[in-house]
Amino acid sequence: MSVSRTRNLQHKVYIPSSARENQYLMAKLPLTDELLENFDSLIANGTEKPYDALYQHLSDTFFSAADNSTIESVQFIANDKFPRVRYSPEKLTAQTKQQVLFLYDPKFHTSRNSFVNGANKAKKITLIFLANGDDIRVESAKFHSEVKGVLEEFAKQAKLDVTKIRICDHQHLTYDLFAKNKGVEGSQSHKFRSMTDRYLADKLQLPESADALTYAVVDLPLNRRIRSLVTIDDKASDKYIELYNLIADAFISSAKQHNLHNGAVIANGLVPIVRRGEDENVITDGELLMLGYNPKHSSGGYTCKWDANKLVDSIQLIFVATEQDKTSYGYGKFVNQIQQALSSFAKQLDYIAEKEELILRLHQHIGFYPEK
After folding, report:
1. pTM above 0.85, yes or no
2. Where are the domains of the chain?
3. Cβ–Cβ under 8 Å, residues 342 and 218
4. Distance CA 150, CA 57 (A)
5. What are the C-alpha distances in Å from 280 to residues 172, 263, 266, 298, 299?
């Protein structure tokens, strides 16, 4: 085999045909004092819900703009809750104290809802666009363009400055690393090109100021078999420390063996939210654990967060790509390294591939402010 063909294969990833696709865009509009002054007549100070009319006006305007497009699933959020989107064969929208969770199948489920709290001034309005259809990844540039069109129309109707609305494009591919062992036939190949490059191929150019982040989250269920790999002392105050150490050591050693040097092990029941930031930090915010990563830093190491006296249902294992992980081909090599590391990790835990799942969700994000 030629050197060029070998190199090309190294950057091509084969994932199960059963892989699930998601794409959603979030548009964030800060409710600044300047903006509120423009809508002063809609704010009923001194009443129980002073911001009801404002949120109603903005949501009506948003839904009106969306109705002029082919986009079917849109959400208006004005309660400062964090939106999360996941694939699910059954449609479900649920709220917690800090989150709005959208579970849906892009092929079959559509929705349009408002989530507001008229009693409080939200820090920002968040507009959610959920992709629908059969070929989410193939149609992603078209969907992105249509979302931008809706936002421009919304800003025009509401008399807002569209350049103050931050757009975040999120895309996921989710699959069981051991799908083939469970009888899933067929595969699909990807090079995981950056979103900027993929969109450029579809004649959609993103602003140069756009920032990107690529990472993977792995869900490791703590079933009885895995728990039995160690002896748990129920009388100890840190009775799960040996279990968590076993898993963390196996994961980190496997990751480093395959030249992966940025990530986290989360076993405290909080929801990890991975975001790009200038500084790398870990911030606990109620139900959420905010993990900040700077892709320019190539050796951030592994963060481990757990409660040694609490048994969680599952552990989240996180890999974060750096700029060095992006090649001229894309992130395919990075994803192959992840798959190899997880295979090594699973062997250390005596994984039963035919029965036990190891769900890998690959994230590609990009964020920017529209240009005039």
Report:
1. yes
2. 16-173, 213-365
3. yes
4. 16
5. 23, 11, 16, 12, 11
